[in-house]
Amino acid sequence: MDTEAQPTRRDRSSSSPGAPGTEGRSRFAFVSRFADWLPGGRITLTLFVCLLFLLLLNTYVAQPFQIPSGSMENGLRIGDRVLVNKVAYRFGAGPRRGDVVVFDGTGYFGDADYIKRVVGVGGDHVVCCDEEGRIEVNGRPVDETAFLYPGDSPSTVPFDVVVPPGRLFVLGDHRGDSSDSRDHLGSPGGGMIPVAEVIGRADWIVWPVAHWTHLDRPTAYARVPAAEQPHG
């Protein structure tokens, strides 16, 4: 009698509303019923979840960007696709000199997204050029030969600017084929892009596979001293 009664009690316990695992089974049953309701069933549900994940990823984390022109050659060629890190500057860190950034140029360069290299950040004094034809940032010459397009000079347009706080002075690596801050010194904002318009930092070339590489920050810009603070 006792041997037969024990499994009966366990059966009643396992089926009670508060039994462990009941909630998990209920959720699984709901998902299963929802999948059965959709045309295509679980395949459709799986595709929907994947698309939602990609949408969230593209909106908040990373976004592919196709290089539209030769302004960043030779490093970035027309048709290359880069992966833009959209969280690089969301937690207090701002763009640094040497970073390659994608930004919305509406109202500053044109109604489109652009990709350029950051040469000066807020407070920087950017001058072209010194006696050897190099750009100077905060009084230090920058050797750009590692990424400048072969045969290009740092700039054929002279400039002497101080970058306002919260803005960026940006140039293309192919200076002879780039419309950048130099060409918009007389435009609204003086050719300086607001940091708020930066979509993200280009970290990787992901396509074509033969060009797959990480976009490192050049050491030439890492050596530039901080801008002098104005005396009150």
Task: Explain how this protein is built.
The protein has 232 residues and is of the alpha+beta class. The chain has 2 domains: 2-59, no CATH class; 63-222, Umud Fragment, subunit A, CATH 2.10.109.10. It has 4 helices and 12 strands; from the N terminus they run H-H-H-E-E-E-E-E-E-E-E-E-E-E-E-H. The strands form 2 sheets. Strands 1, 2, 3, 4, 9, 10, 11 and 12 form an 8-stranded antiparallel beta sheet that branches. It has a 4-stranded antiparallel beta sheet with strand order 7-6-5-8, with no helix packed on it. Strand 6 and strand 7 form a beta hairpin. The chain is globular, with a radius of gyration of 28 Å.
Essential attributes:
Umud Fragment, subunit A; 12 strands; 232 residues; eight-stranded antiparallel sheet; alpha+beta; single chain
Structural class: alpha+beta
Looking at this structure, what is the CATH superfamily of the largest domain?
A: Umud Fragment, subunit A
State the CATH topology of the largest domain: Umud Fragment, subunit A
Largest beta sheet, briefly? Answer: 8 strands, antiparallel
CATH-derived architecture of the largest domain: Ribbon
Q: Any idea what the radius of gyration is?
A: 28 Å
Given as residue ranges, the uncertain stretches (5+ residues, pLDDT < 50) are 1-25, 50-58
Query: What's the number of extended β-strand segments?
Result: 12
Estimated helix fraction: 10-25%
Q: What global shape is seen? A: globular
Could you name the CATH class of the largest domain? Mainly Beta
Mean pLDDT value: 81
Secondary-structure element string = HHHEEEEEEEEEEEEH
Number of helices: 4
